[in-house]
Write a sequence for this structure.
């Protein structure tokens, strides 16, 4: 299973990469807009791609077929690392199919159930991105949605990855992993939180206490 860090902050990406914790970067228009970059979003994406040889997901700025195709081609020119994210709406299906046939990696976004996921895969998407935080906000179970999509794909031999986006905590992260997600995208804050556990803190305190006692014994 792969882990993506959902951010456009270069420092957070460097930290995650240097610690060997992530396999890629997930950006969104909101995340890119939040980062001030003198040359604009394209140069920021290029800078992100230059940090390491891992996939970087970037979203097109359109929803109709011709504009989606044009934007996707422009994004793909930035780097071989780019995975183009395209909202899964009817007008964009033609572009998804055309782009995938040309060898451009496509992730379908705004996918929220197994039916949409199956249709996106049939259209040519190599990955479906499912934001479980948005599903949970509607009173549904985002983790169970991931499990359902995974079961449908397995049952019918669908070759398409399932990316579970934005689990809020370790329990949801683990739930997505157990549900069969091929990749999970987390914010930098959640990624750091996954490193923590109260028993780990308690164990470190005990470890340091034991080290101190051992040191005093040696001194005597």
């Amino acid at each position: 299973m792969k882990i993506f860090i959902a951010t456009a902050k270069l420092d957070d990406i460097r930290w995650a990469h240097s610690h060997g914790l992530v396999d890629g970067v997930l950006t969104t228009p909101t995340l890119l807009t939040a980062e001030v970059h003198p040359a604009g979003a394209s140069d920021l994406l290029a800078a992100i791609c230059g940090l390491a040889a891992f996939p970087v997901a970037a979203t097109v700025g359109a929803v109709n077929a011709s504009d989606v195709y044009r934007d996707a081609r422009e994004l793909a020119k930035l780097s071989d690392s780019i995975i183009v994210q395209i909202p899964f709406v009817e007008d964009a299906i033609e572009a998804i199919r055309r782009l995938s046939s040309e060898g451009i990696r496509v992730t379908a976004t705004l996918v929220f159930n197994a039916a949409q996921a199956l249709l996106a895969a049939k259209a040519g998407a190599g990955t479906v991105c499912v934001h479980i935080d948005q599903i949970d906000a509607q009173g549904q179970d985002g983790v169970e949605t991931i499990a359902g999509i995974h079961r449908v794909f397995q049952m019918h031999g669908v070759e398409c990855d399932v990316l579970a986006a934005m689990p809020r905590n370790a329990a949801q992260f683990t739930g997505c992993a157990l549900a069969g997600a091929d990749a999970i995208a987390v914010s930098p804050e959640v990624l750091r939180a996954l490193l923590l556990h109260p028993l780990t803190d308690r164990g470190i305190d005990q470890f340091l206490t034991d080290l101190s006692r051992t040191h005093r014994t040696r001194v005597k």
Notes: The CA atoms of residues 53 and 200 lie 32 Å apart. The chain has one domain: 2-219. The domain at 2-219 is CATH 3.20.20.70 (TIM Barrel).
